[in-house]
Amino acid sequence: MRDYGSENLWEVTESALESIAIGAGILGTGGGGNPYIGQLRARQVIREKGPVAVLSPEELPDDARVVCVGGIGAPTVGIEKVRDYQSYHALRAIEDYTGEKATALISNEIGGSNSVEPLIPAAMTGLPVVDADGMGRAFPEFQMKTFFVYGVPCCPMAVADEKGNSVVIRDTINPQWAERLARSITVQMGCVACYAVAPMSAQQVRRTAVPNSLTLARNLGDAVKQARQEGRDPLSAILEVCPGKELFGGKVMDVDRRTAAGFARGTLGIDGLDSWAGQKMEIEFQNENLVARRDGEIVCIVPDLICAVGTDLGEPVTTEMMRYGLRVTILGFPAPALWTSDEGLAVAGPRAFGYDVDYVALTV
Amino acid sequence: MFVGVDVGGTNTDAVLMDGAQLVNAVKLPTTGDVTSGIISALTALLARLPAGARVDAVMVGTTHFTNALLEQRNLSPTAVVRLALPATQLLPPAVDWPAELEAALGGHTYMVGGGHEFDGREIAPLDRGELRRVAADMRSEGVTAVAVSGVFSPVNAAHEREAAAIIREESPEVRICLSHENGRMGLLERENAAALNAALGRLAEEVIESIKEALESLDVDAPLYVSQNDGTLMDAEFAARFPAFAISSGPTNSMRGAAWLSGVRDGIVVDVGGTSTDVGALVNGFPREAAVAVELAGVRTNFRMPDMVSIPLGGGTVVRTEPFGMGPESVGYRLTEEALVFGGSTLTATDLAAADGRAIVGNPQLVEGLDPSLVRLGMSEVTSRVETAIDQVKLTYEDVPVILAGGGSILLNNTLRGASQVLRPEHAGMANAIGAAIAQVGGQVERVYSLEEVSREEAIANCSAAAKARAAAAGAEPSSIEVVDIDEVPLTYVPSSATRVRVKAVGNLAQRQQAS
């Protein structure tokens, strides 16, 4: 491995990738999509090119140039025209346009399949990835990134397809416009594109990224795998790694789904079992889980994390997988501090999702 | 009359059905080659054919193809040709297959320019020159079967068809499977399904040929059908092209047979064997299909498979006392030698059921000494595990009818939480072969409609008519054809609003009039 001057360096190997997929599934708070194809793609590149180094934000050299890459498109198209090296092409396009070479890559979100996207261009170029991301969870919209909340410009930004086409969006008046334009380009490209945002400085990453999230995802996955092997309870193993709270446990009674404005919205009803017997939980979701009410009372609300895992095996359960009879445990984790400030709540607090209530932090 | 044969791990069952009447049944041990066991069962059954009776159709549910994949035997050297470049290079064909299976198929994979976008545009023009080079290479490599998969071929199959024509020009003898004929969206899964069908094709032809010969020598002049995993039949010609659709037809046949024997169309079937219990939901008389990708011999496919929960609990499940525990070990088919109640020395779930009095088997005196609290604990454990499995496959919280099948169902009594009633139909032990005999023929069609051109209702009506026509072409009596499943997926991300409709229609196989 290259010398990155780091003390706490670790590498994403095939086996670490498996753990990250489990952990990112949990941190995906019900969204983030099907991780199979993303994990398989990253595995292919790592198998061919070797493992990817992980640098903590503190250890980034001061002159580092960090590029955020991610996928954009329709998951239902992505299972057919499976994604290729688009994030690598987007990275090259933004480097060409800005005239700056990336020295490290970073995830836009740690939840779901986007968490592994930077590993593909990283393995191909030999660049390290930063142990951080722009959400610390999953969110449905492009502008919901801590980078942009704290003033990192979202443009210039490159969008690339698998054919060799790439487009740079030079500037937009706000991140919502960037999302709108990038999405139209993506449809013309065949709905399976990737984007790369102009390089951030080390100082910007330290100030605006959610730190240590790749390590957290790996540790969560390791804990679940190890607990299963040793026949221990995976839920307590999860809570040992990531301080949080069991909000509820029971079986899914009802899933009410509607597709509205391109998002999977709905409500999930759970009846308590064991220590929760006699109580009910209701979770509202919009791709991700947003509000959890126990017997009518809010016990956890966005941006805090509401995560569903299988009660027996601790596997992440996405909102698409929910159906009557599943045994799930609902875990709550406090949101990264970057989300609970006034600026953070304005973008991803309860009101940003249409709930006329104040954010009350989860206590653990 | 209809003849149904179903091959299980232990026994091969055959039944003769006259309409709703079970006329005769035969149970023989399954043989290593499977085929000779099927022929023995058919021979034994038809030896007792009533005078003047005539066989209208023979339906066979078999494990040949599952075994071939699991043991990597009898597979043809198979190539996979994907029409997709420049897209999808990172995940080439066979990307996530077990190494042994890939080796057994010869490891010939190719990627060629072509394929379509979600809206029907070409990703790239079909690279005809490269296809000719690939075809020549496959020929020199000794490939005898080819799967062709194009990106979005369920939306536009033109490239797959043209590629097949080019390959055939080079190698007229080669067997070709086109992925769009294997069904749904999901490139890797659909491509894998086509590859398995290609690889199993020669074996399927041989198996069908030997059963046909056997029928001829038994003087049976009736069409041969093979059970599919979705509970419908394919004729022999279709089965030779799509043998992988026959994988896992066993559990489906059991569930269909149980539905038919009990008269229940919507409910839960609990099939308790010696080692495990399969629990599945019936919707409109058919097993509910699994929504997630199904792995076959380590390969992800999008086959229509019954959505079932299997728990390691059966009549032969071993009971431990200090501390208390049940299974997953089982004495299996050695139950009648090893269980206490049969004079053996292993404490099994059947012994507890016999001591409890719910099962009348063996010599009850041999289990009289069992601790009553152990018997109660064991029986409540059995009941609660089955109730949990029932709850997992149920679609709603309402109580539903539960049908018990399989020899191990003596472990259960007639009150189960979640059950509106518990049914134990007569002949439940032959449910699998009966399921094969009563199977219907079906047709499934999946199409994408632009809702700017047609209304949603017109789209569904158009797709339903196509599915019914396909069922009729497969041999269904036109008056019996009904639509059993409509699945609609709005493609919300497409700017011009489009929807994908999938319709399944089934009908009874036409039974010929008795010769007068």
Could you write a compact summary of the structure shown?
By secondary structure, chain A is α+β, with helices and mostly antiparallel strands. Chain A is 31% helix and 28% strand.
How is the secondary structure organized here?
The complex is a heterodimer of chains A (364) and B (516).
Chain A: E1 10-12, H1 14-27, H2 36-49, E2 52-55, E3 65-73, H3 75-78, H4 86-98, E4 104-107, H5 119-125, E5 129-133, H6 146-149, E6 157-160, E7 166-169, H7 175-188, E8 192-197, E9 200-201, H8 202-208, E10 210-211, H9 213-230, H10 234-241, E11 245-260, E12 263-272, E13 280-286, E14 288-294, E15 297-301, E16 305-310, E17 327-333, H11 337-340, H12 342-348
Parallel strand pairs in A: 2-5, 3-4, 4-5
Antiparallel strand pairs in A: 1-2, 3-8, 3-9, 5-10, 6-7, 6-8, 11-12, 11-17, 12-13, 13-14, 14-15, 16-17
Helix pairs in contact in A: 1-2, 1-9, 2-5, 4-5, 9-10
Chain B: E1 2-7, E2 11-18, E3 21-29, H1 35-47, E4 57-61, H2 64-71, E5 78-85, H3 99-105, E6 108-113, H4 128-140, E7 145-150, H5 158-170, E8 175-178, H6 187-217, E9 224-227, E10 232-235, H7 236-241, H8 249-262, E11 267-272, E12 277-283, E13 286-287, E14 294-296, E15 299-301, E16 308-311, E17 317-320, E18 325-330, H9 335-338, H10 349-356, H11 372-393, E19 400-405, E20 419-423, H12 431-437, E21 440-450, H13 456-473, E22 482-491, E23 498-507
Parallel strand pairs in B: 1-4, 4-9, 5-6, 5-7, 7-8, 10-21, 11-19, 19-20
Antiparallel strand pairs in B: 1-2, 2-3, 9-10, 11-12, 12-13, 12-16, 14-15, 17-18, 21-23, 22-23
